[in-house]
Structure formats: structure tokens, C-alpha cells
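Researcher: I'm preparing a figure for a lab meeting and need a structural model of a single chain. I don't have an experimental structure, so a prediction will have to do for now. The sequence is pasted below. Please return the structure as C-alpha cells so I can convert it later.
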Amino acid sequence: MVFGGLALVMGLGLAVYVNHFAAARLDDARAEVIRGITRSIAGALAANLGEREREVALLSQSSFLIDGPLDGAAVRTALDRLKQTHRQYAWVGVADADGRVRAAADGVLEGVDVSARPWFAGGMAAVYQGDVHTAVLLAKLLKADDPDEPLRFVDFAAPIHDRQGQLKGVLATHAHWSWVTDTIRQSLPRTAVRDGIDVFVVDRHGGVLYPYDKIGSTRLPAGLLSETEALTIQWADEGAFLTSVRRVRSDSVSDLGWRVIVRQPIARAQAPVRALQREVLLISAVAAVCLMGLAYRVAVGVSRPVERLATAFRRIAAGDERASIVYRGSVREVRELADALRSVTDTLIARKHELEQSNATLEHTVAERTAQLRLANEQLSALARRDALTGLGNRLSATEHLRTEYLRMKRSGRAYAVLMADVDHFKRVNDRFGHEAGDQTLRRVAQALQSAVRATDVVARYGGEEFVVVLPATEHAGAVAVAEKIRQAVAALVVPVVGQVSLSVGLAVARPAAEDELEVVARADDALYRAKAGGRDRVVA
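Model: Understood. Here is the structure written out cell by cell.
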């Protein structure tokens, strides 16, 4: 006890030294880290803003913009190349002096009037750099990387003058706001998340720009917009933070007034000091135990057998079930402990084997149930795409095949055809012979359609007495032949009770320039309408 007490006194003295001297040095070092991160992020953002502005200004003085037409091939090629080589640009385009977009990368927004946009007005006068904003037109055309955050952009624009100094138009780019996120992540140390370091980018009025989830929910302390090296500041109800503020000063024409704020909870900032103090106290305690052990060597007779037991238990914990728990000493308490532990171990191993067997049985049962559920889902999916009356595919099935053929045409360039067929005077059949006869008529017509087409063609009931036929890889002449074959097959039918029926068919061949798969269906439906109006029982392409 005396030796242990001396060791603890020495440890407490060392802890006092750490608290008064080493702690101050560690706090200064941590403050310097926060200042360095703030400087790094502000510098990187300033450099990026200046680079983008210079880039647009230099490009606006290119000969193909000064001498050639703004919608020329050289302009489009240069804009496409610029967007491809700079992934931070969401949009690059050229507008004429009237505010009409004449050329843009990938053709986006070409022909749109942008005269009311701030970047156009600013770019007409001089090199322009706009603050972060959302773009309504681009947001409809581009997909956001993060569905929880809207697309935001920073605009850069510059005037285009001809050789006589006359204003021709404006060159503009919309830079993805995501480059701010990338710049900040690259400037942060790997331990930033672990150390609780937060980064904010705010505008000149103190509005939070980054991160998005803090907009409107984080209130800056009063007077924080002035540059601060690294001070302990109280953040509303969030607590005390080591905080550093730095203005984003770029060498660009425009000054957006952004500021970078980096903060770290005081508890996290002082964590190394607290850890050092704990280590000192722990070392002191260990030293006390060691000194006390020297005074009580007689305990060796107990500690060594216990260590052997612990070793055996570690082997068992690692999976070695054959490790034996044996004690051959004379200390009665240790012997009883060894016996009790052996009994507990045997019981646990037996229960482990029982649990493994139970798990194996359960896994087998789960696998069987999963297979049954998968089969049931497949059957339900097939039923959802099948017309119960005719046995053909239903409208959902037809829509899926139309989409598949449209995408295949876009990839391969091979056209396909769509037939819209309608049973003539079907309402009279229902009114005269009854709905059962009408259903029989639809079934017979469906069978005739199915037998008249090729194995690769798709026939589906589109609704009521209307059917759709999708003919893959089929041009106009082939489609007309198939449509006529279908019409003749139905005309040759003799339906019980009803007699003969006829079919009107509208035909259309898909166009590669179509915006979607429904365009060809609409044209085929229009052809069907003309077939009806022209006397029925005919094919109109």
C-alpha cells in the first residue's frame, strides 16, 4: 500500500503539470489546425472562382467567337469540348445580343430567351460572376446527384465583341455547386469527421450556403462575419466551439463576399489533453499495482494458475473447444473456480451445438419459403400482364414491349412498326347478340391475330375491342403485308351466332427522331381512325 501510494502521488503531480503546461500547448496547436483548415478552404475556393472567371473571359476572346457566327460548328465543338473537360460545368452556352441562346454544349437551352437572366445583363457589360442560385430551366433538364438537395449553380459570363468592338453577345457557364463540396472535402484532413469539425460557407449577409442541410436551421453567433483566427465562441444552444472565420478573397472582378467558417466542439478540441491526462493517471495506477505486486510476491501462487485458466478461456473464445481447464495447485479457491468454469464451459459448448443445429434447420425452412414466395411473385407478375378474356398480353404488357422496341431502335437504328386494330361495329354485336357473343367474338379475333403474325411479333388487347400488334425490325412494306394478312384472317372468320366480322387496321412505322414510344402509337391510332372513316374493313398506313 505504501509503494502504491507513492506511485499515485507521483502520477497526480505529473497530471497537474500536464493540465497547466502541456494542455496550453496542445490547445494552441489545435487552434492552428483549425486556422489552417479555414485558410486552405478559403484559398481553394478563391482560386477556383478566379480560375473560372479568367477561363470564361479568355474564351470570350477566341477567334471563332469574334469572327464567326455564334451558332457555327466551331462554336458548338468548342463548347462541347469545354463541358467535357470541365466536369464542374453543368451548362456552357452563347447568347446573342438580343438574349437568345444561339449555341450550347449538347444543345441544351438552344433557342431559349435568357434576356431576363442576371448573368446575361451582367455579362453584356463586363466579366460577370453571380452568387449561388437555383436554375429552373436547367433543373428540369439535368438530374441531381443528391435527390435531397436541389441543383444549384454559380454563373460566370463575359461579353463577346467583334473586331470593330461591337457587342455580339454573351458567353456564359453555370458551374455545379457540387465543386464547393469537392473543394471542401479535398481540403479537410481525414480525421475531420472523427474530430467533429464542421465547415460552413456563408454569403455576405450571413446566410448559410453550405452545407445544404444547415440552411435555415443554423443560426450564426452575432458578429461572426468578421475574420476570426480561432476563438472559443458560443453557438446559440449548440454549445461552445473553437471557431475560425476567413473571407474568400479571389483576384476576380466580382467579390461575392463569401466567408468560410470552420468550427470544432471545445470538448473535441480538448480531447487530446483529456486523453493525455487519463494516460498519465492510468500509468500512475499501473505503476502502483506493479509496486504493490513486488511487495506481495506470495500472490504468484494464485495469479499463475488464474492466468492459465484465462489462457484456456481465450482459446475457447477463439473457437478451440478442445482446450482443457485444469488446475493442479493447492489453493482451494482456485480449484473451486476451475471446476465451476469447466462446468460452465461444457454447458455453453453443448448449447452452442444445439443452437447451430437449430439455425441450420431454420435456414433450410427460410430457403424453402423464399423459393415459394419467388415463384408466387413470378406467377402474379405474369397474371398482371395477361388479358383474362383473350389470353393475350394486356395494355401493361403492350406498353412494356413498346418501350423495349423503342430503346432497341435508339441503339441499333432499326425501325419497327405498330398496328392498331379495331373490330368493326362491335357495339352492334353486343347489342344484338349479347355480351357473351361479344366475348366469343373477341376470343376468336384474338386467335386469328395470334395465328397471322410471326413468332417474334407481339399481339396484345389494348382495350375493349381494340388490339395492338408490335412488329420488331419491320419496315413499311413488311408491316403493310402483315396488316393485310391480319385483316384477311379476321374477315375469313365465322363466329358462332354472330357470323362474319371485319377488322379495321391502322399502321405506323416508328421514327428514330421520336421523343418517346407513344408517338408511333398515336400515329397508328390516327391511321385507324382514318380506316374507320374510310369505310372500315381496310388497312390505312
